[in-house]
Design brief:
Blueprint: E1 11-19, E2 25-34, E3 37-44, E4 47-55, E5 60-65, E6 70-75, H1 76-85, H2 91-96, E7 108-115, E8 118-124, E9 140-145, E10 151-158, E11 163-169, E12 173-174, E13 189-191, E14 197-202, E15 208-211, E16 221-226, E17 231-240, E18 261-266, E19 276-281, H3 282-286, E20 289-290, E21 293-295, H4 307-317, E22 321-330, E23 333-340, E24 347-354, E25 359-366, E26 387-395, E27 398-406, E28 410-419, E29 422-432
Parallel strand pairs: 6-13
Antiparallel strand pairs: 1-2, 1-11, 1-12, 2-3, 3-4, 4-5, 5-6, 7-8, 8-9, 9-10, 10-11, 14-15, 14-19, 15-18, 16-17, 16-19, 17-18, 20-26, 21-22, 22-23, 23-24, 24-25, 26-27, 27-28, 28-29
Length: 436
């Protein structure tokens, strides 16, 4: 018998507590339910990390990344199945929509137990075949309240009994839920769940490129735009496997032949050695014009904002500008890096594209902990010289940017698209190069 709690209360909220294998609570999820719709707010380090909206009637899931304000949509069944592979799914949502997740149909009742003062029915779940290092003693267990029909506790043991992660739920609070909770915010940008673009880097000769991440159709990728602003035609050679004996794990040219990833041959000419490129399908680039980028790697405040522009930004952001550096010129526009005055536990920098009649911001909030404020081991300092503009596109009368941000351990590569005066992170990949 499976307890069904939808009949008990069609609208309610509940708090989920997440515990690591070491027993510490690392985050909470607040779950709101209104009939077939669900909202999951995930808190990490006391900050809202992501919001997941589930629509059971439409069989759709929308995931809002609060760090980037981007939204990815995916089919409900696919979301449940994909997350089940690594056993990272929302257990509450999985049980609520269990008719769409085949493996939960084989839950086996193990008896009755009292958990946290509640009478529950104990179920054994099948272990994910994708979880490694498991034995017959490693079982996912779920306890369901006999009173409310909602999950009370979930635990999953792996590593032959060595590690156990736990989730617990407070008692659900019945009551009407606002319809607005289940609507996507208007100031977000939707990005495809199956990416059409990915960053890559070239080998030492510039004859081949290696993709740094996954893309929906690797064989369909046919074009690259690299740091020199030129387009290169590509041919997909296949996906090379990592060499476990020689792979250093670093995304550097010396390790190019030993890394795992999709490899592309430059059909004519050379892209230049050790270049960062954005690669995509031909239709992606068909609607985009590559703009000329005049780079400036000024590291002082001598090249950047005029006094009048500083004052303009300070009025707009209600915060004093302490540093402003010119990164590049794109046609008749300027790309600037600004650092604002520190506030307690609040450091903020931004990259801004300034045109004759517009300005578009990409904010870079920091933690201000004195050691790793923006990047790992940055010493608490914002370093504009570590930022560079890789490329710029004109698309639908707007300007898109590619930004490289070098850190101690590696380089973050970001493709930014504008909306409503803000840049959104449309694609991000990472080149790890530490230790040098």
């Amino acid at each position: 018998m499976l307890l069904a709690f939808r009949a008990a209360a069609s609208e309610f909220s509940v708090v989920q507590h997440n515990f690591s294998a070491f027993g510490s609570e690392y985050g909470q999820d607040t779950i709101y339910v209104k009939d077939e719709r669900m909202r999951i707010e995930s808190m990490r380090e006391n900050k809202l990390d992501s919001v997941t909206l589930v629509d059971g009637e439409l069989n759709k899931v929308y995931r809002l990344d609060k760090r980037t304000d981007t939204v990815k949509s995916i089919e409900l069944r696919e979301w449940l199945a994909e997350s089940y592979k690594a056993y990272r799914f929302s257990t509450f949502a999985a049980y609520y929509y269990r008719d769409k997740l085949d493996h939960l149909k084989t839950m086996k009742q193990m008896g009755e137990e009292s958990v946290a003062g509640q009478a529950t029915i104990k179920y054994r779940l099948p272990q994910s075949p994708h979880v490694k290092d498991t034995g017959p003693e490693d079982l996912p267990i779920l306890w369901i309240s006999q009173k409310t029909g909602t999950p009370v506790r979930y635990q999953n043991t792996v590593g032959h009994g060595r590690f156990t992660t736990v989730k617990t739920w407070d008692s659900p609070v019945p009551g009407p839920q606002l319809a607005s909770l289940f609507e996507m915010p208007r100031d977000s940008m939707t990005v495809p769940s199956v990416p059409r673009t990915v960053f890559a880097f070239s080998n030492e000769h510039g004859s081949h490129l290696l993709a740094l991440g996954d893309v929906g159709d690797p064989e369909g990728v046919s074009t690259a735009v690299c740091e020199d602003g030129k387009r290169y035609a590509l041919k997909h050679l296949g996906k090379q496997g990592a060499d476990p004996k020689k792979d250093s794990g670093r995304d550097v040219v010396q390790n190019f032949r030993f890394l795992e990833g999709n490899v592309y041959k430059v059909r004519s000419g050379f892209a230049g050695g050790d270049r960062n490129c954005l690669i995509a399908t031909a239709d992606f680039f068909a609607g985009r014009q590559v703009l000329k980028v005049g780079r400036s790697f000024a590291s002082s405040s001598k090249a950047g904002c005029s006094p009048s522009y500083r004052q303009r930004i300070e009025r707009l952001r209600a915060r004093k500008v302490v540093r402003c550096v010119l990164l590049a010129r794109v046609e008749n526009q300027s790309v600037l890096a600004l650092e604002f005055e520190r506030r307690p536990k609040d450091a903020l920098a931004t990259v801004v594209l300034v045109g004759p009649e517009h300005q578009t911001f990409w904010d870079l909030p920091g933690r201000d902990d004195g050691q790793s404020t923006w990047r790992v081991d940055d010493g608490g300092h914002f370093k504009p010289g570590d930022l560079s503009v890789l490329f710029a596109f004109s698309h639908e009368s707007f300007t898109e940017l590619g930004i490289a941000w070098v850190g101690v351990e590696g380089t973050s590569l970001s493709y930014l698209r504008p909306k409503g005066g803000r840049f959104f992170l449309y694609r991000n990949d990472y080149r790890y190069h530490a230790p040098r």
